[in-house]
Amino acid sequence: MTTLFDRWKKGFDAWEERTAKRSSELLQSPRVLEPAGAVLTALLHGKARAGRTLTGVWSAVGLPNRRDQERTLRMLSVLERRILDLEEKLDDARRGR
Question: Is a pLDDT exceeding 70 seen at residue 11?
């Protein structure tokens, strides 16, 4: 005997199959993909342009941009390693090694 849930599930499965097929056809259509690709390309170009503009503004104000901050962080890391090495050598010298 078929329950109400079984009938609903069967109808839902049929709807899901039809919807999946139609949406797959739609999303693979060049009529959808080409404009979507063009929009995405325009957005990425705009983001890159905005990034360059923002970097120029930061530089004009005299503040460091991301590249400057990364370079400074690298130099600080090198200095930290050198200080740790010197501290280790100083400890070794004090112990008479």
Answer: yes
